[in-house]
Every structure is written in C-alpha cells, then in structure tokens.
Model the fold of this input.
Amino acid sequence: MSGVGEALGRAEVKLRWDPSPYGEPPRHLDIIAATYAVDDPYGRPVYVVHTESRSPDGTITMSRHSETGMGFGFVEVMVLEFDRMSPAYGRVVGGVAIHQDGGPRTFGDLSNAGVVVVEGYRELLVDDFAQVADATAATVAEFGRETSGWAFREMVRGFDADPVLFAAEMGSTR
Done:
C-alpha cells in the first residue's frame, strides 16, 4: 500500500450530494466502513460501521448523517481514529452506497455528489463519482496497517449492489 507521507492518526470521510428534485423520493446515501482482521485482511469483515452503528471500541463513528442530501456541502461524515485502533485490525475499507428505496439509482443520477477523505487539513482524496457513474455503490478508500502505522490508498471501484450486499463484498479483491 502506498502511503501519503507520515502514518495516519485520524481521518474523515465526507460525503455530499444535492437533494432530489421536487416531487421525487429522497436520495439517500450512506458512508460505510468495513474493518478486517490483521491475519485475514481480505476475508470477511470483523465489523461494519454505517449510519446506524459505530465500531465496538468507538474508533469509527458517524459524526454527521443526512437522509436527503440538503445541498449544503458535506452533510455526512465518518471519523476513523487509527491511532486508537486495536492491533487486531489490519485493514479498513471505506465506501458509499445509494439506498434504492425510490427505484434504481446510480451515481450518475445524482447531482453534485462528491466525497473527500481528509486528515486534518490535508486532502487525501477528492472524487465526484464520475468514474463509477453506472454504479449503485463504490469503495473510495483503503487504509492499511504497516510497520510505521496506518497508510491510505485511493480505491475508487464501482459495485452494483444494495448497501447490505455491498458491505459484505466491498473489501474483496475482485
């Protein structure tokens, strides 16, 4: 995994999108993080964090959540505290899934959608989902434990899956 300099301590994944046009069902996106064991970094996730949950030790939490977008910048934020994470975990994959309540929607159907991954004021990733426009879910970031600490790697990959299936397969090597 190629890092972006010094080891990560705390990172945030921030998501934005505009609300649905008048009269259409709300557009609802979620940030999802899957955590993998150090001895099985590409196996099944040990746990998954999303809007209705947090990590068992509190190192991955949602600090902001939106079910409609609002159009006021980054309306959903997940905080990952790598400097407090147990040595039992060796990999975390972050992604975004679109709820399919109002019928099939892809990233290409959304207006002003974007994600940013930051550590403090340093932007590690900025993406508008254009490269995964036909997908209903996408991974955006991979964080891996290295000898010097946690490192970041951009990992924008599209999936055609609902949030539950996406959470199960997002860390695969497909």
Remarks:
- The beta strands are 10-16, 29-37, 47-49, 60-64, 76-81, 89-98, 114-119, 122-127, 137-146, 149-159.
